[in-house]
Amino acid sequence: MKPNFVQKVTNWGNFPVVEKEMKSDDSFDKIKDFILTHNEVIARGNGRCYGDASLGESIFSTKKLNKFISFDRLNGIIECESGVLLSEVLEISVPQGYFLYVTPGTKFVSVGGAIASDVHGKNHHAEGCFSEYVIEFKLMIENGEIITCSREENSEKFWATIGGMGLTGIILSAKFKLKNIESAYIRQESIKADNLDEIFKLFEESENWTYNVAWIDCLQTGKNIGKSILMRGEHAFPHELPQNLKEKPLRLKKKFEPTVPFYFPGFVLNKFTVKVFNLLYFKKQTKKEIKNIVDYETFFYPLDVVNDWNKIYGKSGFIQYQMVIPKEKGKEGMKKILETISRSGNGSFLAVLKLFGKNNPEAYNSFPMEGYTLALDFRVNSKLKMLIGKLDDIVQEFGGRIYLTKDSMSKSSLTNYLRNIQNSKFVSLQHKRIINNNQGS
Amino acid sequence: MIVLGSTSEVAQAFVEKALQEGEKFEKIYLFTSNKETTERFARHIDVKFLQQSEIIELDLTKEIDYNVFENINSTLLFCAIGYLGEGTKEGLYDNKNTQRIIEINYSKLIPVINYFAHKFENRRSGTIIGLSSVAGDRGRQSNFIYGSAKAAFTAYLSGLRNYLFDKKVHVITIKPGFMATKMTEGLPLNPKLTASPKQAADCIYKAFKKQKNIAYVLPVWSVIMMIIRNIPEFIFKKLKL
């Protein structure tokens, strides 16, 4: 059997699927060889980005760069190779009283991916993006040289790589800060909002909370547009915990993790089932306001509990559409977007609304800008492109942009905010699509 | 714990599994021919589990100085050393390839295991886990040089288990089947028959706790190999396996 590294590769949305060369190794010499012997290379972490950002002609998987390098338990500074997952960081940091400053909605992203996407979390308004806490990283550039990038050293490369979608090189390892926590639990308040006005008011009232996020029922129409539940949270102190958790505040109980066994047939997710899901989701909370204590996994990673949940969208896959609209026009823009989705009947199973705070101007390739951001899942079908086109037009009209990490369909004018990444060696399908396709469609 | 072949992803996954399950080792002795990669693993288990380890260079293609091993003591030995080499079609008449496969998988390896088996025997305790291969169950045209070395290794482990039984030392033979590791990267393996290093480590740890004698990593392999072993020779020789 002669090796053949060409294989089917796809990211979390199962769309698009490509047949390309993919290789993985933990030896820096072999990675250098790979870079030097291939024309177009792109790094791929755990494949948890949704679209085509980590797909390319020759893919280097960082899965085998999975070792920890150091952990300063006194100051909460951790260093690890780029293929280490955030879940693995949490596994060792939480029992020591440390949490990630910034985490996306899944803990199964790699550290390298978190930097290349400059991920944001429910606390962007308060604590910014992942990059704020990155001290330095090692990057292998086009000639195979390994350089250390920080705010002081190779700072130009540092900032270009942050949110740079892997187009500056292969991140090998990173050192970053963690935040102190006293328990593995979150003090949470869930508040129901009947419409957009209410949810926007709630967001503004909750600015002092570290974590804010809202689930929106995006099939509602008329005066019910924006029906949602806001969840806000703070890391709980041990004295706030119920008696049975006080003893070991930094330990979580092991939970059952179901797995979606196969791709659901396409018809399972439709307007009706999404409506029923949303109805149940919103009816579950009968009171206007609930205050409770939940573990960090429930609060930050509700979907991680179901392994392979992406399979419920069927084999045709799904996309996640995440956009941001500047704050002053946020409400107007969101209203238009939600109306368009509701009219299309192409319901989103999962719709998440958040308020971003000010962006860090140094991290010029990062997606977030001050404003409202909405993330929506859509199953890929024949009508989807038309809907995305309409949504793109609205985002453009309001001066917004699209999140590259999740994009695979949007107009290039909304996604081409990347700067300083012109490099003929590191090229992704997404990058090509953005450059070559000015019309979107 | 003594690990022979420390850059093996299965060996590393097994070490992590054991530490996660709360096994205590005073020190882990990492035998390797690749110091750089092993150093990274040593740091990794130190960061993750505060586990002390020591790296010992071992190159089976060179002369071995046993004096270096004198102070090494443990009750668990995990051997993941293996070398696939070229398949028979490409490498049968390449003597260098043949010799390397035999040396690394068997002839140079056995004395090293024997050295530690002797220590275990004297102490009258311990477990030796050896990663053999389903390729050793029956010689097939695609890789019978490797297969024959693994068959010899399987026979060795079986004999050693028998010999050490009343000396209170247990020997486990692991037959992994396909595994998604560096050794097999890029080969078109059926995903249903292929175990990840982590899956393999979980299974090996189970076999260790239950003190099994022989364990296939994925149960389906015991069925496949039972069939392959029982095909009559006059038919088998005509098959393209």
Automatic annotation (TrEMBL), chain A:
PROSITE patterns: FAD_PCMH. Gene3D superfamilies: 3.30.465.10. Pfam families: FAD_binding_4. One of its GO terms (molecular function) is oxidoreductase activity. Residues 10-181 form the FAD-binding PCMH-type domain. Keywords: Oxidoreductase. The keyword Plastid does not apply. Belongs to the oxygen-dependent FAD-linked oxidoreductase family. PANTHER family: CYTOKININ DEHYDROGENASE 6, GULONOLACTONE OXIDASE. This is FAD/FMN-containing dehydrogenase.
From TrEMBL, chain B:
Coiled coil: none annotated. Keywords: Membrane, Oxidoreductase, Transmembrane, Transmembrane helix. InterPro entries: NAD(P)-bd_dom_sf (IPR036291), SDR_fam (IPR002347). The chain crosses the membrane at residues 214-231. SUPFAM superfamilies: NAD(P)-binding Rossmann-fold domains (SSF51735). Pfam families: adh_short. It comes from the Bacteria. GO terms for molecular function: oxidoreductase activity. The keyword Amino-acid biosynthesis does not apply. Belongs to the short-chain dehydrogenases/reductases (SDR) family. This is Short-subunit dehydrogenase. It comes from Chryseobacterium geocarposphaerae.
